[in-house]
Design goal:
This protein is an alpha+beta fold and about 80 residues long. Helices cover about 15% and strands about 40% of the residues. It is elongated.
Length: about 80
């Protein structure tokens, strides 16, 4: 079973195809090599250090709330 976590892109290095993504206060450097046209402020699904696809802010918030309800995370704001 795979689990992808929604996160907001807060910084991008296009030359390296890398970005910094944030979930609440937690930030992680991730690869954006699998996506086109990623911009700061976009929400993406992350799995094992890669952004898999872009999602809407509403979908990110809904997913994070479901994770919190299931006890998988503390309640986080995207």
């Amino acid at each position: 079973m795979c689990l992808a976590l929604p996160a907001k892109i807060v910084a991008i290095d296009h030359a390296l195809a890398m970005a910094t993504a944030a979930v609440g206060e937690v930030k992680k450097d991730i690869s954006i090599a699998l996506l086109e046209d990623v911009q700061v402020g976009d929400f993406v699904l992350i799995h094992v250090g890669y952004a898999l696809n872009k999602i809407s802010p509403q979908e990110a918030e809904k997913t994070l709330q479901l994770f919190a309800e299931a006890g998988l995370t503390q309640e986080l704001q995207p």
